[in-house]
Amino acid sequence: DVSECSGARSLWPSQKALPESKVSSRALKMEMVSRILGVDRSAPPMSFYCAGSIREEDGVRWHGCPYCSKEFKKPSDLVRHIRIHTHEKPFKCKQCFRAFAVKSTLTAHMKTHTGIKAFECQCCLKCFSTSGSMKVHMRDLRPYMCPYCQKTFKSSPNCRKHMKTHSVTGGSADRPNTSARRR
Fold it and tell me: Which InterPro entries does this one have (predicted)?
């Protein structure tokens, strides 16, 4: 939900998204957005939102980044992107004081403080507080082990293919090492 000032074509979050819903003057709204984005207020106010950074193509309005050539359909995506350039991290953890550019990242981070680990790896039964940390774990997991040399693999077909390299007739390589443990 975006409002537009027809004079300067400046964008800001809808009235209800502003910290103080009673703010109504154009100048105050522009000041708030420039603070949120960390824009140098000595420059012409909100100059990067003025004509030229918003273009319309096939009925779609594209909002351009003032720092690079990227464009976004949603102003909220542009605001999130601009934080990459400005290093602004407005969402702060009240327990450990880490800061984040995106609110959903803070929300996921907060789960690490609860001690609850609701996501369980189906291979090793290790538990994680977020699905993202479990996905990283799964990406590095190598649950398939060669019984001949204990080399591990991410997939069963790769392990089977490797095991064929051990098939030397008559030698000890034909028999798997059953005393070895899986990692």
Answer: Transcr_Reg_ZincFinger, Znf_C2H2_sf, Znf_C2H2_type
Residues 55, 64: contact at Cβ < 8 Å? yes
3 state SS of 51: coil
Give the homologous superfamily in CATH for domain 89-141.
Answer: Classic Zinc Finger (3.30.160.60)
CA distance 32 to 160: 61
Q: How far apart are CA 166 and CA 122, in angstroms?
A: 29
Query: How would you class 76 by CB atoms within 10 Å of its CB: exposed for 0-12, middle for 13-18, buried for 19 or more?
Result: middle
Cα separation, 35 vs 144, in Å, equals: 53
Q: What are the pLDDT digits (tens) for 51-86? A: 338 888 999 999 999 889 899 999 989 999 999 999
In a 13 Å sphere around the CA of 132, the CA atoms on its Cβ side amount to 7
Strand ranges (E), the chain: 2-5, 10-13, 54-57, 60-64, 71-72, 91-92, 99-100, 119-120, 127-128, 144-145, 152-153
Side-chain-side CA neighbours of 8 within 13 Å: the count stands at 14
The number of angstroms, rounded, from the C-alpha of 110 to the middle of its chain's C-alpha atoms is 15
**What confidence tens digit (pLDDT) does each residue in 131-171 have?**
888 988 888 888 889 999 999 998 899 999 999 999 765 44
